[in-house]
Specification:
Blueprint lengths: L7 H4 L4 H20 L2 H5 L5 H12 L3 H17 L3 H34 L1 H10 L5 H16 L5 H16 L17
Helix pairs in contact: 2-4, 2-5, 4-5, 6-9, 8-9
């Protein structure tokens, strides 16, 4: 053997099945990149050729031509390491999960406050001492009245907005983790 010795991984050829799986992964990655909105695509680390090919694929209306362009994007992706691209897409998924979690926590607190009343407000005050309790209690009363009269939930939406903003400042705990709190009746 002359020169540098090769590791066992380098000497073994990649199987045809593995190459096919890799090609299919890159094809699905290309498909995902083409579907991304412009703002997110701008945050993905892509070289100019790939970005141009993606923009061109978005303009194509013919299914056959679009499929061919998608395969071209996948071919371009093979030239570079796809890991930074995959990390950026995972980050987008994490952001989406965070937003969904924030929405669910705010919805849970809103429903909990409307159903439980003052005991729930007391729990919220423990978490946020500087809270305008008078405004929160008024929104709860209005939301209950809207619910009883079968009216649009304007007060419930306002309460939700406040809770979502509170969660953005500092994450609220999930309502289920508060333990047993009495209902508005007792």
């Amino acid at each position: 053997m002359k020169g540098k010795e090769k590791s066992p991984e380098e000497t073994l050829p990649v199987s045809k099945s593995q190459r096919r799986r890799d090609a299919l992964e890159l094809k699905s990655l290309a498909q995902e990149l083409i579907k991304l909105n412009q703002a997110k695509l701008g945050r993905v680390p892509l070289n100019d050729m790939v970005r141009d090919a993606i923009m061109e694929a978005r303009q194509i209306r013919s299914n056959v031509a679009r499929k061919r362009q998608m395969q071209y994007v996948a071919k371009l992706l093979r030239r570079d390491d796809p890991e930074p691209i995959l990390l950026a897409l995972e980050k987008f998924d994490g952001e989406a999960r965070e937003i969904t979690g924030r929405q669910h926590r705010a919805e849970g607190w809103r429903d909990f406050l409307i159903e439980t009343g003052d005991p729930a407000v007391g729990e919220l005050i423990k978490l946020r001492p500087g809270l305008d309790t008078q405004a929160i209690r008024q929104l709860i009363r209005n939301a209950r009245a809207e619910l009883a009269r079968n009216r649009p939930p304007a007060a419930a939406r306002s309460l939700f907005k406040i809770l979502r903003e509170m969660d953005q400042e500092e994450i609220l705990p999930a309502v289920g983790g508060l333990g047993a709190i009495g209902t508005a009746d007792g």
